[in-house]
Amino acid sequence: MNLKETIADAQKRKVAIGHFNVSNLEAVHAIKEAVQETGYPIIIGLSEGEGEFFGIRELACLVKEFKSQGLPIFANADHSYSVERAQAAIDAGFDAVIFDGAELSHEENIIKTKEVVEYARSKNPDCLVEAEIGFIGKSSSVLDKLPEGVATAEFLTKPEDAVKFAQATGIDLLAPAIGNLHGMLKDMPNPALDIERIQKISDDTGLPLVLHGGSGISESDFKKAIQSGIVIVHINTEIRVAFKDALMQSLADNPDQIAPYKYLKPAKDAVKKVIIEKLKLFNNA
Ligand SMILES: [Zn+2]
Question: For residue 213, how far is its CA from the centre of ligand 1 (angstroms)?
Answer without folding.
Answer: 6
